Amino acid sequence: MLKLKNYINGELVAPVAGQYIGSYNPAVGAMHALLPDSDEQDVELAVQAALAAFPAWAATAAEKRGQLLLRLADLIDLHLNRLAEAEATDTGKPLSSAKTMDIPRASSNMRFYGTAIQHFASEAHYMAGTAINYTVRHPHGVVGCISPWNLPLYLFTWKIAPALAAGNCVVAKPSEVTPLTAYLLSELCQEAGLPPGVLNIVHGYGHKVGAAMVAHPKVPVISFTGGTKTGRSIAATAAPMFKKLSLELGGKNPNIVFADCNFEEAVVTSVRAAFANQGQICLCGSRIFVERSLYEQFKAAFVEKVNALVVGDPLQENTSQGAIVSEEHLQKVLSYIELAKAEGGTIVAGGEQVQVKGRCEKGWFVAPTVIEGLAHNCRTNTEEIFGPVVTLTPFDTEEEVLHYANCTDYGLSATIWTQDLTRAHRVAHQVHAGIIWVNTWLLRDLRTPFGGMKNSGVGREGGFEALRFFTEPQNVCIKL
Ligand SMILES: NC(=O)C1=CN([C@@H]2O[C@H](COP(=O)(O)OP(=O)(O)OC[C@H]3O[C@@H](n4cnc5c(N)ncnc54)[C@H](O)[C@@H]3O)[C@@H](O)[C@H]2O)C=CC1
Ligand SMILES: O=C(O)/C=C/C=C(\O)C(=O)O
Protein backbone atom coordinates (compact mmCIF):
# COMPACT_ATOMS: atom_id res chain seq x y z
CA MET A 1 0.00 0.00 0.00
CA LEU A 2 1.20 3.50 -0.83
CA LYS A 3 2.90 5.05 2.23
CA LEU A 4 3.06 8.85 2.10
CA LYS A 5 5.91 10.85 3.61
CA ASN A 6 6.35 14.31 5.02
CA TYR A 7 8.30 16.83 2.95
CA ILE A 8 10.77 18.55 5.26
CA ASN A 9 13.91 20.46 4.29
CA GLY A 10 13.56 19.29 0.70
CA GLU A 11 13.48 15.58 1.65
CA LEU A 12 10.66 13.05 1.78
CA VAL A 13 10.84 11.68 5.31
CA ALA A 14 8.93 9.32 7.57
CA PRO A 15 7.27 10.77 10.70
CA VAL A 16 9.56 10.77 13.75
CA ALA A 17 7.25 8.56 15.82
CA GLY A 18 6.77 6.12 12.92
CA GLN A 19 2.98 6.15 13.20
CA TYR A 20 0.54 6.18 10.25
CA ILE A 21 -3.14 6.88 9.55
CA GLY A 22 -5.29 5.08 6.96
CA SER A 23 -6.48 7.11 4.00
CA TYR A 24 -9.75 5.99 2.40
CA ASN A 25 -11.17 6.01 -1.09
CA PRO A 26 -14.75 7.08 -0.35
CA ALA A 27 -16.12 5.74 -3.63
CA VAL A 28 -15.22 2.17 -2.66
CA GLY A 29 -15.20 2.59 1.12
CA ALA A 30 -11.72 1.07 1.48
CA MET A 31 -8.27 2.15 2.59
CA HIS A 32 -5.93 2.98 -0.28
CA ALA A 33 -2.90 4.63 1.37
CA LEU A 34 -1.20 5.37 4.66
CA LEU A 35 -0.22 8.88 5.67
CA PRO A 36 2.09 10.03 8.45
CA ASP A 37 0.44 10.49 11.83
CA SER A 38 2.88 13.31 12.56
CA ASP A 39 3.15 15.17 15.84
CA GLU A 40 4.88 18.21 17.30
CA GLN A 41 8.32 16.66 16.71
CA ASP A 42 7.73 16.70 12.95
CA VAL A 43 6.31 20.22 13.14
CA GLU A 44 9.45 21.29 15.02
CA LEU A 45 11.69 19.85 12.29
CA ALA A 46 9.63 21.62 9.64
CA VAL A 47 9.73 24.95 11.47
CA GLN A 48 13.51 24.69 11.97
CA ALA A 49 14.01 23.90 8.27
CA ALA A 50 11.82 26.84 7.30
CA LEU A 51 13.63 29.20 9.68
CA ALA A 52 16.99 28.17 8.23
CA ALA A 53 15.78 28.64 4.65
CA PHE A 54 14.11 31.99 5.27
CA PRO A 55 17.01 34.51 4.97
CA ALA A 56 18.06 33.25 1.53
CA TRP A 57 14.49 32.89 0.26
CA ALA A 58 13.51 36.38 1.47
CA ALA A 59 16.62 37.77 -0.25
CA THR A 60 15.84 35.97 -3.52
CA ALA A 61 14.59 38.35 -6.19
CA ALA A 62 10.80 38.32 -6.60
CA GLU A 63 11.34 37.46 -10.25
CA LYS A 64 13.27 34.31 -9.33
CA ARG A 65 10.69 33.25 -6.73
CA GLY A 66 7.99 33.83 -9.32
CA GLN A 67 9.85 31.70 -11.87
CA LEU A 68 9.92 28.77 -9.44
CA LEU A 69 6.16 29.04 -8.96
CA LEU A 70 5.69 29.18 -12.73
CA ARG A 71 7.81 26.04 -13.08
CA LEU A 72 5.60 24.33 -10.48
CA ALA A 73 2.51 25.44 -12.42
CA ASP A 74 3.95 23.86 -15.58
CA LEU A 75 4.72 20.64 -13.70
CA ILE A 76 1.17 20.50 -12.30
CA ASP A 77 -0.15 20.86 -15.86
CA LEU A 78 2.24 18.19 -17.10
CA HIS A 79 1.02 15.76 -14.41
CA LEU A 80 -2.67 16.71 -14.77
CA ASN A 81 -3.91 13.16 -15.25
CA ARG A 82 -1.96 11.65 -12.37
CA LEU A 83 -2.96 14.45 -9.99
CA ALA A 84 -6.60 14.31 -11.06
CA GLU A 85 -6.73 10.55 -10.54
CA ALA A 86 -5.20 10.98 -7.08
CA GLU A 87 -7.72 13.72 -6.21
CA ALA A 88 -10.67 11.64 -7.41
CA THR A 89 -9.42 8.60 -5.45
CA ASP A 90 -8.90 10.57 -2.25
CA THR A 91 -12.11 12.64 -2.32
CA GLY A 92 -14.60 10.51 -4.28
CA LYS A 93 -15.30 13.43 -6.62
CA PRO A 94 -15.83 12.73 -10.33
CA LEU A 95 -12.53 12.40 -12.19
CA SER A 96 -13.92 14.83 -14.77
CA SER A 97 -14.29 17.53 -12.07
CA ALA A 98 -10.77 16.93 -10.79
CA LYS A 99 -9.45 17.21 -14.35
CA THR A 100 -11.38 20.32 -15.33
CA MET A 101 -11.67 22.18 -12.02
CA ASP A 102 -9.36 21.15 -9.18
CA ILE A 103 -6.03 20.56 -10.87
CA PRO A 104 -6.24 23.36 -13.47
CA ARG A 105 -7.07 25.78 -10.66
CA ALA A 106 -4.03 24.55 -8.70
CA SER A 107 -1.72 25.45 -11.57
CA SER A 108 -3.59 28.76 -12.06
CA ASN A 109 -2.95 29.61 -8.40
CA MET A 110 0.78 29.02 -8.85
CA ARG A 111 0.86 30.93 -12.13
CA PHE A 112 -1.22 33.80 -10.77
CA TYR A 113 1.01 34.44 -7.75
CA GLY A 114 4.22 33.70 -9.68
CA THR A 115 3.22 36.66 -11.84
CA ALA A 116 1.38 38.84 -9.29
CA ILE A 117 4.48 39.20 -7.13
CA GLN A 118 6.24 40.97 -10.02
CA HIS A 119 3.53 43.65 -9.93
CA PHE A 120 3.22 44.06 -6.16
CA ALA A 121 4.50 47.62 -5.66
CA SER A 122 5.32 49.64 -2.56
CA GLU A 123 3.23 52.67 -1.71
CA ALA A 124 4.69 56.16 -1.28
CA HIS A 125 3.06 59.14 0.42
CA TYR A 126 4.46 62.59 -0.24
CA MET A 127 3.89 65.30 2.41
CA ALA A 128 4.18 68.46 0.32
CA GLY A 129 7.54 70.07 0.92
CA THR A 130 8.03 68.25 4.26
CA ALA A 131 8.67 64.54 3.90
CA ILE A 132 8.28 61.45 1.78
CA ASN A 133 7.01 58.17 3.20
CA TYR A 134 7.54 54.85 1.52
CA THR A 135 6.15 51.55 2.73
CA VAL A 136 8.20 48.40 2.43
CA ARG A 137 6.45 45.05 2.74
CA HIS A 138 8.64 42.43 4.39
CA PRO A 139 7.83 38.71 4.45
CA HIS A 140 6.94 37.52 7.94
CA GLY A 141 9.31 34.56 8.20
CA VAL A 142 7.68 31.16 8.72
CA VAL A 143 3.95 31.01 8.02
CA GLY A 144 1.51 28.15 8.60
CA CYS A 145 -1.05 27.09 5.98
CA ILE A 146 -3.82 24.64 6.94
CA SER A 147 -6.22 23.44 4.26
CA PRO A 148 -9.37 21.25 4.08
CA TRP A 149 -10.49 18.15 2.20
CA ASN A 150 -13.14 19.45 -0.19
CA LEU A 151 -10.86 21.01 -2.84
CA PRO A 152 -7.54 19.62 -1.67
CA LEU A 153 -4.84 20.77 -4.10
CA TYR A 154 -6.93 23.77 -5.23
CA LEU A 155 -7.06 25.25 -1.72
CA PHE A 156 -3.61 24.05 -0.63
CA THR A 157 -1.98 25.93 -3.52
CA TRP A 158 -4.32 28.92 -3.02
CA LYS A 159 -2.54 29.44 0.31
CA ILE A 160 1.04 28.40 -0.29
CA ALA A 161 1.44 30.25 -3.61
CA PRO A 162 1.00 33.81 -2.23
CA ALA A 163 2.89 32.92 0.96
CA LEU A 164 5.92 31.71 -1.01
CA ALA A 165 5.70 34.46 -3.64
CA ALA A 166 5.86 37.08 -0.88
CA GLY A 167 9.13 35.59 0.40
CA ASN A 168 7.94 33.55 3.37
CA CYS A 169 8.93 30.00 4.12
CA VAL A 170 5.94 27.75 4.71
CA VAL A 171 4.92 24.90 6.96
CA ALA A 172 1.77 23.49 5.40
CA LYS A 173 -0.72 20.87 6.51
CA PRO A 174 -3.18 19.34 4.06
CA SER A 175 -6.28 17.63 5.42
CA GLU A 176 -5.61 14.16 6.81
CA VAL A 177 -8.73 13.06 4.91
CA THR A 178 -7.22 13.91 1.49
CA PRO A 179 -3.41 14.03 1.66
CA LEU A 180 -2.46 12.49 -1.69
CA THR A 181 -2.11 15.46 -4.04
CA ALA A 182 -0.13 17.50 -1.51
CA TYR A 183 2.24 14.54 -1.27
CA LEU A 184 2.54 14.40 -5.06
CA LEU A 185 3.16 18.15 -5.05
CA SER A 186 6.13 17.64 -2.73
CA GLU A 187 7.68 15.40 -5.40
CA LEU A 188 7.06 18.14 -7.97
CA CYS A 189 8.73 20.70 -5.67
CA GLN A 190 11.85 18.52 -5.72
CA GLU A 191 11.67 18.30 -9.51
CA ALA A 192 11.17 22.08 -9.82
CA GLY A 193 14.28 22.75 -7.70
CA LEU A 194 12.53 24.58 -4.87
CA PRO A 195 15.30 25.25 -2.30
CA PRO A 196 15.17 22.93 0.75
CA GLY A 197 13.11 24.23 3.66
CA VAL A 198 11.21 26.85 1.66
CA LEU A 199 8.07 24.69 1.65
CA ASN A 200 7.53 21.95 4.22
CA ILE A 201 4.50 19.67 4.20
CA VAL A 202 3.59 17.88 7.41
CA HIS A 203 0.78 15.32 7.22
CA GLY A 204 -1.46 14.26 10.07
CA TYR A 205 -4.39 15.12 12.27
CA GLY A 206 -5.56 18.66 12.89
CA HIS A 207 -5.61 18.27 16.64
CA LYS A 208 -1.92 17.21 16.57
CA VAL A 209 -0.10 18.76 13.59
CA GLY A 210 -2.47 21.69 13.02
CA ALA A 211 -2.63 22.52 16.71
CA ALA A 212 1.19 22.33 17.03
CA MET A 213 1.60 24.72 14.09
CA VAL A 214 -0.90 27.18 15.53
CA ALA A 215 0.74 27.09 18.98
CA HIS A 216 4.32 27.30 17.71
CA PRO A 217 5.97 30.57 18.82
CA LYS A 218 8.05 30.80 15.62
CA VAL A 219 4.99 30.67 13.34
CA PRO A 220 3.49 34.17 13.67
CA VAL A 221 1.02 33.86 10.79
CA ILE A 222 -1.67 31.25 10.13
CA SER A 223 -3.85 30.93 7.05
CA PHE A 224 -6.69 28.44 7.56
CA THR A 225 -9.61 27.16 5.52
CA GLY A 226 -12.08 24.77 7.07
CA GLY A 227 -14.98 24.52 9.49
CA THR A 228 -16.09 27.47 11.62
CA LYS A 229 -15.72 25.45 14.82
CA THR A 230 -12.07 24.68 14.02
CA GLY A 231 -11.49 28.33 13.08
CA ARG A 232 -12.79 29.38 16.48
CA SER A 233 -10.39 27.04 18.29
CA ILE A 234 -7.45 28.27 16.16
CA ALA A 235 -8.36 31.87 16.96
CA ALA A 236 -8.50 31.05 20.68
CA THR A 237 -4.91 29.78 20.61
CA ALA A 238 -3.57 32.43 18.26
CA ALA A 239 -5.16 35.57 19.78
CA PRO A 240 -3.16 35.72 23.03
CA MET A 241 0.01 35.13 20.98
CA PHE A 242 -0.95 38.12 18.74
CA LYS A 243 -0.69 36.00 15.60
CA LYS A 244 -1.91 37.28 12.27
CA LEU A 245 -4.84 35.13 11.09
CA SER A 246 -6.71 34.57 7.87
CA LEU A 247 -9.75 32.35 8.41
CA GLU A 248 -11.89 31.13 5.52
CA LEU A 249 -14.76 29.30 7.19
CA GLY A 250 -18.18 27.92 6.45
CA GLY A 251 -21.14 29.26 4.53
CA LYS A 252 -24.91 28.84 4.24
CA ASN A 253 -25.30 30.80 1.10
CA PRO A 254 -28.57 32.23 -0.24
CA ASN A 255 -29.44 31.86 -3.91
CA ILE A 256 -32.16 34.46 -4.57
CA VAL A 257 -34.28 33.98 -7.68
CA PHE A 258 -36.54 36.87 -8.74
CA ALA A 259 -39.40 36.26 -11.16
CA ASP A 260 -37.75 38.39 -13.86
CA CYS A 261 -34.64 36.15 -14.03
CA ASN A 262 -33.37 34.40 -17.13
CA PHE A 263 -35.24 31.23 -16.18
CA GLU A 264 -33.19 28.58 -17.98
CA GLU A 265 -29.85 29.98 -16.77
CA ALA A 266 -31.15 30.39 -13.23
CA VAL A 267 -32.29 26.76 -13.07
CA VAL A 268 -29.16 25.24 -14.64
CA THR A 269 -26.73 27.30 -12.55
CA SER A 270 -28.71 26.82 -9.33
CA VAL A 271 -28.39 23.05 -9.77
CA ARG A 272 -24.63 23.46 -10.22
CA ALA A 273 -24.40 25.86 -7.27
CA ALA A 274 -26.21 23.41 -5.00
CA PHE A 275 -24.52 20.16 -6.05
CA ALA A 276 -21.07 20.89 -7.47
CA ASN A 277 -18.51 18.74 -5.64
CA GLN A 278 -21.45 16.95 -3.95
CA GLY A 279 -22.36 20.24 -2.25
CA GLN A 280 -19.01 20.24 -0.47
CA ILE A 281 -17.88 23.76 -1.35
CA CYS A 282 -18.18 26.56 1.17
CA LEU A 283 -19.71 28.72 -1.61
CA CYS A 284 -22.53 26.32 -2.54
CA GLY A 285 -25.95 27.92 -2.82
CA SER A 286 -27.64 25.70 -0.25
CA ARG A 287 -30.71 27.89 0.39
CA ILE A 288 -32.73 28.77 -2.70
CA PHE A 289 -35.33 31.52 -2.30
CA VAL A 290 -37.73 31.88 -5.25
CA GLU A 291 -40.24 34.70 -5.81
CA ARG A 292 -43.65 33.15 -5.20
CA SER A 293 -45.06 33.79 -8.69
CA LEU A 294 -42.23 31.67 -10.16
CA TYR A 295 -41.95 29.13 -7.34
CA GLU A 296 -43.87 26.13 -8.72
CA GLN A 297 -42.42 26.50 -12.22
CA PHE A 298 -38.89 26.81 -10.83
CA LYS A 299 -39.37 23.85 -8.49
CA ALA A 300 -40.58 21.59 -11.29
CA ALA A 301 -37.69 22.46 -13.61
CA PHE A 302 -35.12 22.32 -10.81
CA VAL A 303 -36.26 18.94 -9.50
CA GLU A 304 -36.34 17.51 -13.02
CA LYS A 305 -32.70 18.49 -13.53
CA VAL A 306 -31.66 17.24 -10.09
CA ASN A 307 -33.26 13.85 -10.76
CA ALA A 308 -31.23 13.66 -13.98
CA LEU A 309 -27.90 14.00 -12.13
CA VAL A 310 -25.97 10.74 -12.26
CA VAL A 311 -24.72 9.49 -8.89
CA GLY A 312 -22.01 6.95 -9.57
CA ASP A 313 -18.46 5.76 -9.94
CA PRO A 314 -16.20 8.84 -10.04
CA LEU A 315 -14.14 7.22 -12.77
CA GLN A 316 -17.06 6.99 -15.19
CA GLU A 317 -17.43 9.79 -17.73
CA ASN A 318 -21.17 10.33 -17.22
CA THR A 319 -20.99 10.61 -13.41
CA SER A 320 -21.96 14.03 -12.15
CA GLN A 321 -22.22 13.20 -8.42
CA GLY A 322 -19.40 11.27 -6.78
CA ALA A 323 -19.06 10.03 -3.21
CA ILE A 324 -19.21 11.95 0.07
CA VAL A 325 -15.67 12.43 1.37
CA SER A 326 -15.82 10.15 4.43
CA GLU A 327 -18.14 7.82 6.29
CA GLU A 328 -18.26 10.31 9.17
CA HIS A 329 -19.30 13.10 6.83
CA LEU A 330 -21.86 10.83 5.15
CA GLN A 331 -23.48 10.26 8.56
CA LYS A 332 -23.51 14.01 9.21
CA VAL A 333 -25.25 14.70 5.88
CA LEU A 334 -27.81 11.91 6.45
CA SER A 335 -28.49 13.20 9.96
CA TYR A 336 -29.37 16.62 8.52
CA ILE A 337 -31.84 15.02 6.11
CA GLU A 338 -33.51 13.37 9.10
CA LEU A 339 -33.46 16.69 10.96
CA ALA A 340 -35.12 18.42 8.00
CA LYS A 341 -37.96 15.86 8.09
CA ALA A 342 -38.33 16.34 11.85
CA GLU A 343 -38.49 20.10 11.30
CA GLY A 344 -41.45 19.64 8.95
CA GLY A 345 -39.66 19.61 5.60
CA THR A 346 -40.89 17.67 2.58
CA ILE A 347 -38.32 15.81 0.48
CA VAL A 348 -39.00 16.60 -3.18
CA ALA A 349 -35.91 14.84 -4.58
CA GLY A 350 -33.37 12.37 -3.21
CA GLY A 351 -33.35 12.14 0.55
CA GLU A 352 -31.43 8.91 0.99
CA GLN A 353 -28.11 7.10 0.75
CA VAL A 354 -27.46 5.49 -2.64
CA GLN A 355 -25.85 2.14 -3.29
CA VAL A 356 -23.88 2.29 -6.53
CA LYS A 357 -23.54 -1.05 -8.30
CA GLY A 358 -20.24 -2.82 -9.01
CA ARG A 359 -16.84 -1.54 -7.85
CA CYS A 360 -18.46 1.20 -5.73
CA GLU A 361 -21.10 -0.85 -3.91
CA LYS A 362 -19.48 -0.13 -0.52
CA GLY A 363 -18.96 3.57 -1.28
CA TRP A 364 -20.48 6.53 0.55
CA PHE A 365 -23.01 8.14 -1.79
CA VAL A 366 -26.03 10.37 -1.13
CA ALA A 367 -28.73 11.23 -3.67
CA PRO A 368 -28.86 14.96 -4.43
CA THR A 369 -31.60 16.09 -2.11
CA VAL A 370 -34.12 18.92 -2.39
CA ILE A 371 -36.32 19.89 0.55
CA GLU A 372 -39.18 22.38 0.79
CA GLY A 373 -41.61 23.53 3.44
CA LEU A 374 -39.08 24.56 6.06
CA ALA A 375 -39.05 27.74 8.12
CA HIS A 376 -36.29 30.12 7.02
CA ASN A 377 -34.79 30.12 10.51
CA CYS A 378 -34.87 26.39 11.35
CA ARG A 379 -31.62 24.50 11.94
CA THR A 380 -31.64 22.88 8.48
CA ASN A 381 -31.79 26.37 6.97
CA THR A 382 -29.20 28.00 9.19
CA GLU A 383 -26.51 25.36 9.88
CA GLU A 384 -23.87 24.34 7.34
CA ILE A 385 -24.55 20.82 6.03
CA PHE A 386 -21.74 20.83 3.46
CA GLY A 387 -23.31 18.11 1.36
CA PRO A 388 -25.75 17.53 -1.53
CA VAL A 389 -28.75 19.01 0.26
CA VAL A 390 -30.59 22.16 -0.77
CA THR A 391 -33.78 23.83 0.44
CA LEU A 392 -36.41 25.70 -1.58
CA THR A 393 -38.41 28.54 -0.01
CA PRO A 394 -40.84 30.99 -1.64
CA PHE A 395 -40.83 34.71 -0.88
CA ASP A 396 -43.12 37.64 -1.69
CA THR A 397 -41.06 40.82 -1.26
CA GLU A 398 -37.49 42.02 -1.51
CA GLU A 399 -37.54 43.00 2.15
CA GLU A 400 -38.68 39.52 3.14
CA VAL A 401 -36.00 37.72 1.13
CA LEU A 402 -33.29 40.00 2.50
CA HIS A 403 -34.42 39.06 5.99
CA TYR A 404 -34.25 35.35 5.07
CA ALA A 405 -30.86 35.72 3.35
CA ASN A 406 -29.30 37.50 6.32
CA CYS A 407 -30.78 35.39 9.10
CA THR A 408 -27.84 32.98 9.54
CA ASP A 409 -24.57 33.49 11.42
CA TYR A 410 -22.73 33.00 8.11
CA GLY A 411 -21.92 35.61 5.48
CA LEU A 412 -19.77 34.07 2.80
CA SER A 413 -21.46 34.36 -0.60
CA ALA A 414 -24.80 34.95 -2.31
CA THR A 415 -26.25 34.77 -5.81
CA ILE A 416 -28.98 37.07 -7.11
CA TRP A 417 -31.01 36.24 -10.24
CA THR A 418 -32.74 39.20 -11.87
CA GLN A 419 -32.70 41.14 -15.16
CA ASP A 420 -33.32 44.39 -13.28
CA LEU A 421 -29.89 45.97 -12.85
CA THR A 422 -31.05 48.52 -10.30
CA ARG A 423 -32.52 45.78 -8.14
CA ALA A 424 -29.38 43.68 -8.53
CA HIS A 425 -27.22 46.49 -7.10
CA ARG A 426 -29.75 47.34 -4.39
CA VAL A 427 -30.06 43.75 -3.15
CA ALA A 428 -26.33 43.01 -3.51
CA HIS A 429 -25.45 45.87 -1.20
CA GLN A 430 -27.90 44.67 1.47
CA VAL A 431 -26.91 41.01 1.60
CA HIS A 432 -24.38 40.41 4.36
CA ALA A 433 -21.84 38.38 2.40
CA GLY A 434 -18.28 38.94 1.24
CA ILE A 435 -18.87 37.58 -2.27
CA ILE A 436 -21.95 38.36 -4.36
CA TRP A 437 -22.68 36.88 -7.78
CA VAL A 438 -25.37 38.34 -10.03
CA ASN A 439 -26.77 35.94 -12.64
CA THR A 440 -23.88 33.51 -12.17
CA TRP A 441 -22.11 31.40 -9.56
CA LEU A 442 -18.45 30.61 -8.82
CA LEU A 443 -17.23 32.81 -11.65
CA ARG A 444 -13.78 33.47 -10.24
CA ASP A 445 -11.31 36.23 -10.99
CA LEU A 446 -8.25 35.51 -8.88
CA ARG A 447 -7.51 39.23 -8.51
CA THR A 448 -10.64 39.84 -6.40
CA PRO A 449 -10.88 39.77 -2.58
CA PHE A 450 -12.22 36.41 -1.44
CA GLY A 451 -13.70 35.74 1.99
CA GLY A 452 -16.64 36.10 4.27
CA MET A 453 -18.38 38.27 6.84
CA LYS A 454 -19.72 37.21 10.25
CA ASN A 455 -18.90 33.57 11.16
CA SER A 456 -17.67 32.87 7.63
CA GLY A 457 -14.25 34.20 8.39
CA VAL A 458 -11.72 36.85 9.11
CA GLY A 459 -9.72 38.61 6.40
CA ARG A 460 -9.63 38.13 2.66
CA GLU A 461 -7.61 35.95 0.32
CA GLY A 462 -7.03 36.48 -3.40
CA GLY A 463 -5.19 39.04 -5.50
CA PHE A 464 -3.01 41.55 -3.69
CA GLU A 465 -5.05 41.00 -0.50
CA ALA A 466 -3.20 37.73 0.04
CA LEU A 467 0.18 39.34 -0.68
CA ARG A 468 -0.66 42.03 1.87
CA PHE A 469 -1.66 39.37 4.38
CA PHE A 470 1.58 37.47 3.92
CA THR A 471 3.75 40.61 4.38
CA GLU A 472 4.43 43.03 7.22
CA PRO A 473 4.27 46.69 6.17
CA GLN A 474 7.04 48.98 7.40
CA ASN A 475 6.79 52.70 6.79
CA VAL A 476 9.93 54.82 6.35
CA CYS A 477 9.41 58.59 6.71
CA ILE A 478 12.20 60.83 5.35
CA LYS A 479 12.20 64.52 6.23
CA LEU A 480 13.05 66.62 3.21
N1 LIG B 1 -13.94 24.99 3.21
C1 LIG B 1 -14.85 24.89 4.12
O1 LIG B 1 -15.60 25.78 4.35
C2 LIG B 1 -14.90 23.64 4.86
C3 LIG B 1 -15.86 23.48 5.81
N2 LIG B 1 -15.90 22.35 6.50
C4 LIG B 1 -16.95 22.25 7.50
O2 LIG B 1 -16.39 21.78 8.69
C5 LIG B 1 -17.02 20.59 9.08
C6 LIG B 1 -16.00 19.70 9.74
O3 LIG B 1 -15.11 19.19 8.76
P1 LIG B 1 -13.64 18.85 9.14
O4 LIG B 1 -13.02 17.95 8.20
O5 LIG B 1 -13.63 18.40 10.55
O6 LIG B 1 -12.96 20.28 8.94
P2 LIG B 1 -11.84 20.92 9.79
O7 LIG B 1 -12.10 22.35 9.93
O8 LIG B 1 -11.61 20.13 11.01
O9 LIG B 1 -10.55 20.65 8.84
C7 LIG B 1 -9.88 21.62 8.10
C8 LIG B 1 -8.37 21.52 8.37
O10 LIG B 1 -8.11 21.93 9.70
C9 LIG B 1 -7.32 20.95 10.38
N3 LIG B 1 -7.62 21.03 11.80
C10 LIG B 1 -8.58 20.36 12.48
N4 LIG B 1 -8.53 20.68 13.79
C11 LIG B 1 -7.52 21.57 13.94
C12 LIG B 1 -6.98 22.28 15.06
N5 LIG B 1 -7.48 22.15 16.27
N6 LIG B 1 -5.95 23.12 14.83
C13 LIG B 1 -5.46 23.30 13.59
N7 LIG B 1 -5.91 22.64 12.51
C14 LIG B 1 -6.95 21.80 12.67
C15 LIG B 1 -7.72 19.66 9.69
O11 LIG B 1 -6.77 18.66 9.92
C16 LIG B 1 -7.80 20.12 8.24
O12 LIG B 1 -6.51 20.17 7.69
C17 LIG B 1 -17.62 20.03 7.80
O13 LIG B 1 -18.68 19.19 8.02
C18 LIG B 1 -18.02 21.28 7.11
O14 LIG B 1 -19.27 21.70 7.58
C19 LIG B 1 -15.00 21.37 6.29
C20 LIG B 1 -14.02 21.46 5.35
C21 LIG B 1 -13.94 22.61 4.52
O1 LIG C 1 -11.29 30.18 -4.28
C1 LIG C 1 -12.23 29.56 -4.74
O2 LIG C 1 -12.55 29.62 -5.92
C2 LIG C 1 -13.02 28.64 -3.92
C3 LIG C 1 -12.79 28.48 -2.63
C4 LIG C 1 -13.54 27.52 -1.90
C5 LIG C 1 -13.38 27.34 -0.59
O3 LIG C 1 -12.60 28.13 0.15
C6 LIG C 1 -14.03 26.24 0.15
O4 LIG C 1 -14.87 25.54 -0.37
O5 LIG C 1 -13.65 26.07 1.31
From TrEMBL:
Protein name: Aldehyde dehydrogenase
GO MF term list: aldehyde dehydrogenase [NAD(P)+] activity
Sequence similarity: Belongs to the aldehyde dehydrogenase family.
Pfam families per the UniProt record, alphabetical: Aldedh
Keywords: NAD, Oxidoreductase
Aldehyde dehydrogenase domain boundaries: 20-476
UniProt cross-references to InterPro entries, sorted A to Z: Ald_DH/histidinol_DH, Ald_DH_C, Ald_DH_CS_CYS, Ald_DH_CS_GLU, Ald_DH_N, Aldehyde_DH_dom
Active site: 248
